[in-house]
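I'd like us to work through together how a protein chain folds, taking it slowly. To get us started, please write out a protein record for me. Go ahead whenever you are ready, and we will take it from there:
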Amino acid sequence: MSDTNADQDILVTAQSWMAAGRRVALATVVSTWGSAPRPTGSQMVVDADGRMMGSVSGGCIEGAVVEQAMAAIDDGKTRLLDFGISDDQAWEVGLACGGKIQIFVEKIGQ
């Protein structure tokens, strides 16, 4: 389980960014298997310019998640991202820890 205060900070930041007119997306770890860098429930907020707060992977796949979050902001579609040791993309983005992680990305707000 993720840190409740950190999760609240992410949501407060998302709310603040939206109030300032920034378009945002929220990425949430929805499942893990094996040696995953962050627990289920971990979150990251991303704005349309690629600025982010929070963590869904301790850094190893966050670049790919930010790209998908920015795409979700643009097209309004949700995404379910899978990264794992057997996934070539996981190696490309740096997830060599041996686990699997699934991240749900959604545009929030207007």
